[in-house]
Amino acid sequence: MSAQGTPAAAGRTAGQSKATPKGAWTITFLLFLFMVVNFADKIVVGLAGVPIMTDMKLSAEQFGLLGSSFFFLFSISAIVVGFIVNKVPTRWVLLALAVIWALAQFPMVGTVSFTTLLICRIVLGAGEGPAFSVAAHAIYKWFPDEKRTLPTAILSQGSAFGVILAVPALNWIIVNHSWHYAFGALGIVGLIWVAAWLTLGKEGPLEDTQVSAAVEPKIPYLQLLTSRTFIGCVAATFGAYWALSLGLTWFTPFIVKGLGFSQSKAGFISILPWVFGATIVMLTGWISQVMMARGYNTRAARGVLGSVPLVIGGLILAMMPHVQGAGLQIALLVVGSGLCGAIYVVCPPMLGEFTPTSQRGAILAIYGALYTLAGIIAPAVMGATIQRAGSTLDGYLTGFTINAVIMVGSGLLGLLLLWPNTERTRLTRGATPQAAALKGAVSPG
């Protein structure tokens, strides 16, 4: 339930909630950069995968474990911080997260053992686990519900641009200097963002979590977490994140070891899925808001719009083992995995539709914690599949086929379960009288 879903917010719905406050787009841009840094941090291990495996003499299974380690505390941290942002201003939480990211990079600048690298990635994952949900919660304090899809799309774009901007620079450092220095460069960039946020970051004026808690009805968390739209969002995004985590960890090694490209060429090829994905994200955000402006309900403008590309993408990915030629296989991988981006744009606004403002930070965080469990499983499954395959290329293609099946299944679950418009009505039916009573208790005369 959004703020508009409560009697206490009725006046805002009719009036000032429609206006976007001054400074909203500045905050959106800063949080976009926040996600750029976030995904640059994520991609560096995959980009430097072959040099790391060579220098440290790692097997495919060990490298898969390294990729998965990033997500060991990812979900736990996301849930804990999600409840914290129900009480603490998002400005300070975002600052603390970015400081952790920066500091976790610097130990890799010198000689490092596999254990140290593993621990640093676990710490980084703990800092990055809450990132998107906290950033989305922060942005929703600057935009009313009907205007949230586009800023959510821009926030999601940070992932693509984090790769598009970082890959050429990081790959140049890896090729011409050392993979160790790539980590150090990311630490410095993280500290630069911290300085910018300290100077310009602010809390959004549209919502005060403590005031909302006083006048809004609380919906039991069990009821929110077992709602079909919440389950549908987790299931659909799980499939998308399976593809994303494989891209972060295994895409560049696939280009180098599976298809035989050089590290230098692989760096540029690695940008392609993110360029295509960025296009999908922006199109989804724009189309969704146009559909809602033309009167479509959020079942169509968000639920269907986000789920169908997952199914199509999975079917495209499933064709990879059945075509010949590296160029065609790369094209199928780029398009199939890139279509996943649509679901990230629509799920947070759908959850925001029926979740009370004072509970939204926790719900978005729990949602993020659950779907990112795919990040623990997918890289390790791919590593084990490659290790046991008859050839390296066969192992990769089998791993991507598993990904295709998961994407199609998650997209179909999304189509079945995502009904945010009716969810809001069902969950708030019994809560509305309570909200009115609470409003009378806290309002003068």
CA(first)-CA(last) distance = 27 Å
Please tell me the overall pLDDT. 84
- Which regions contain 5 or more consecutive residues with pLDDT less than 50? 1-17, 432-445
Percent helix:
over 70%
H/E order of the elements? Answer: HHHHHHHHHHHHHHHHHHHHHHH
Shape: globular
Main sheet properties:
none
Number of strands: 0
Rg for CA atoms = 22 Å
Overall SS class: mainly alpha
Into which percentage range does the β-strand content fall? Answer: under 5%
Structure description:
With 445 residues, the protein is mainly alpha-helical. The protein has helices spanning 10-14, 24-47, 49-56, 60-69, 74-84, 90-105, 114-128, 131-139, 149-176, 179-200, 209-215, 221-225, 228-258, 263-269, 272-293, 298-317, 326-338, 341-354, 357-371, 374-388, 392-417, 420-428, 432-442. The protein has 23 helices and no strands. Helix 2 runs antiparallel to helix 8 (131-139) and helix 16 packs antiparallel against helix 18. The protein starts with 9 loop residues before the first helix and ends with a helix.
